[in-house]
Amino acid sequence: MLIKSAKSMGLSLTKLFYKDLLSVSIPTIFTGIRMTGAASIFVLIAAEMVGAKRRAWYLISYTQMNF
Question: What are phi and psi of 64, to 5 degrees?
Fold first, then answer.
């Protein structure tokens, strides 16, 4: 509906992209970046606990298994 109304008012394709489509999609893009950032931190911690051989997370999981 937004695209049809912008085209009927004579907006060019580049202005349509920058003014309407980009401004509408920016909140969704930043929400996705925020959610994947939080998920990537958890995946990084889990991978570090499983795959590390000399770092702090390895020592934590090693002592947990031997306790």
Answer: -65, -40
Helix (H, G, I), strand (E, B) or coil at 2: helix
pTM of the complete model beyond 0.85: no
CA distance 39 to 15: 35
DSSP assigned state of 63: H
Give just the sign of the alpha carbon dihedral 15, 19, 20, 22.
positive
2-48 pLDDT, tens per residue? 778 877 888 787 887 777 778 888 999 999 999 999 899 989 888 87
Handedness of CA 18, 23, 27, 28 (dihedral sign): negative
| Contact (Cβ atoms closer than 8 angstroms) between residue 19 and residue 11 | yes
